[in-house]
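Entry 12.
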Amino acid sequence: MRLKQSVEEREHVELLMEYQNKRGGRVKLQPMVLPQSEFDHPEKGDDLYAI
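Predicted 3D structure (tokens):
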């Protein structure tokens, strides 16, 4: 079920990118940045923050 939904969403995005290109727009894909982990705290340190 999730694979089917994922494929459907990908098709929607591809249609949107194709439309933008036809209208003279430019699609610039960038890598996604992972959010900072709750254990990576620069002020308190990893071990202390985990506890």
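Annotation: The chain has two helices and no strands. The first helix runs from residue 2 to 22.
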